[in-house]
Amino acid sequence: MPYNPNGLMSADEPRVQHPGLTPGGADKRRAKRVPILTQVEAQGDRRSVLGQGKNISLTGMLVETPETFPIHTSVVVRFFLPPERFRIEGAGKVVWEDEGRSMGITFTGLTDAHRDRIAAYTQTSSEEPSALIPPPQEGTAQQRRSGRILRRLAIILSWQDADGHPQLEATETQLLSRFGGLALTTSELQKGQLVWVTLADTNSKAQARVVFAMTSQSAGRRAVAFELLGEEDFWGIEFPPAHAATPVSRRRSGRIEHGYEVVLVWKDEWGRTREDPAQTRLLSDYGAEVIAPVALPVGSRLRLRVPKLDREADAQVISARAGEQPGRVELGIELVGVEDFWDVDIPPEAGDA
C-alpha cells in the first residue's frame, strides 16, 4: 500500500463506507475528509496501540502509528475531538494498512451523538490542523492543583434517571483526587449528569458531576469519573500536590542538537499510567524538544526518564505539533525545578553577556 506523506488518503486508496450507506445506494457522495491532530487509541482483542489521527470523516479516519493492525481487524477506537476535546468511543474495523506506518479505520458503530459531533467537526474544520494540540478545557479537575492516588473506598452513588425515578448503586472508587474520583459502575451514567456521592463508612454526602463515562476493561462495568461540587476535603485524606511549575527568573539558554533515548511516564485521561519511549532532538538548560509517539496535550504533566544518565525529573508539555515522521509528534518539554539536568555543556543564547 503506497504511503501518502501528506497524511491524507489519496484518491486511489480505498474509501471507507458509512454503515448507513449501502454500496450502489442513492447517496454515493464521498464523505468530507478533513485534517485532525489528536491522539488515538485503537484496542484490538489482545493489545492496544496509540497513534496520531491525521484526518477524519463521518465514515472513518486515518491513524499514523508504528504498531498497525492487519486488515479486517475489529477495534475499539477512542480519541478526543478538537477543540472542545469531546470524547469519542466507537467500534471500527481496519480496512487498509501501511504496515508500521498507518492504517485506515472505518467506523462500524458510533452513537448518534458521536456521529453528529464528527459531522459538525468536518463541516466547520479548517483545511489545515492547528499546530498545537488543544489543551484541556479550562476549569476541569485535570488543571487543578491536586495529585491523584490509588485508593479503594466504598461509596454509594444516587441519582435520578431520565424519567425522574431514583437510582442507587453501591461501588468502590479506583482513583481519588481532592476534587473528585473515578469508580467502576454497572449503570449508564452520562457525562454532565448530577449524582450524590455518599461515603459508606461515615455517611458523608456530597453532590458531584460526571465528567466522563466509558466502557471499562472489566466485563459489564463502566469507568465513571466525577467532580465534586463545592467540596475540597470530602475524602478526609491528605493529597500530594500536583507537580506545578514555580515561575522563576531564568537566564536565557541556547539550544544544541543531541539525541538521548528517554522515557515519557504519564497518565492518560482514564488514570492509567503509560510509559512511552521517545528521543530528544534539541536540548536547552531548561528542557528539550522530544520526538514522541504520543500526542500529549499542551499543559500535560509527566515524568521524564533518561536511562543513560540514570536521571528523571518532572516536566510539562509547553508545545506540540505534528512531526515530520509518520506517527510522531514534536513535543516541547520544560523541566520543573531542576537545572544542569542533561550533563551536556549548553552555550548561552547568542547575544547574552
Query: Taking all residues together, what is the mean pLDDT?
Result: 76
**Largest sheet geometry:** 6 strands, antiparallel, barrel
CATH architecture of the largest domain: Beta Barrel
Write the CATH homologous superfamily of the largest domain: predicted glycosyltransferase like domains
| Helix coverage percent | under 10%
Cα end-to-end separation = 55 Å
**Count the strands?**
20
Q: Quickly count the domains.
A: 3
Report low-confidence residues grouped into runs of 5 or more: 1-29, 126-144, 243-251
- Within the CATH hierarchy, at the fold level, what is the topology of the largest domain? Thrombin, subunit H
Text of the CATH class of the largest domain: Mainly Beta
Order of neighbouring strands in the sheet with most strands = 1-2-3-6-5-4
What is the radius of gyration computed over CA atoms, rounded to a whole number of angstroms?
22 Å
Q: Helix- and strand-based class?
A: mainly beta
In DSSP terms (H or I, runs of 4 or more residues), the helix count works out at 1
| Outline | globular
| Quaternary structure of the protein | single chain
